[in-house]
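go over whats below:
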Amino acid sequence: MSAQPHSGAQPRPYTADDPESALKFAIQHIKGDRVQIVEGVIEPTMPSWDHENVCDLIREQLGPRLRELGCRAGSGNLDLPGSSNWYVPDLAVVPRDLAKGGEALLPDQTLLIVEITSESNAETDRKVKRRRYAEYRAPLYLLVDRQERSCTLFAVPGELGFTQVAGPFPFGTPVTLPEPFALDLDTSEF
């Protein structure tokens, strides 16, 4: 018996009509670890306990003010449309109604984004995410740099990045978060 060539249409290679959407859809359906896309590179997010401790310390301090403002804090997905970026911030503060939808939000829908550096991602948080958060109009970006043992608050996004920078402040120095928070963040336990 000889193999006969298949008569009919040849299978076509798969092509996505919109590669950005296809990639972002795919990473949301990876089982197990949460992942983000940073400048087209897929990265797992696996924070350590000391990393999570800093996140909790910030969340605890923000808690009373968040209830007053009707906001939530978490690490939900942030989409940066038109780019190959899909971030999972360490902490983002958003209006309560936006936290209910289950969809990714945009950086300009947040009130505050916090990134806490790790050995593996410090430069990404210091440079790439800072630039992208400004580009996508996040109003406030707090960088908690565990390697440098400092905090820097970036505010007022502009065409060339954030136009106001407070810090870096060494751990132990309070960091003033402006309105709508109007509170001093205690960094002594970071």
The longest helix spans residues 49-69. Residues 1-9 have pLDDT under 50 and may be disordered. The chain has one domain: 19-185. Residues 3 and 152 are 68 Å apart (CA to CA).
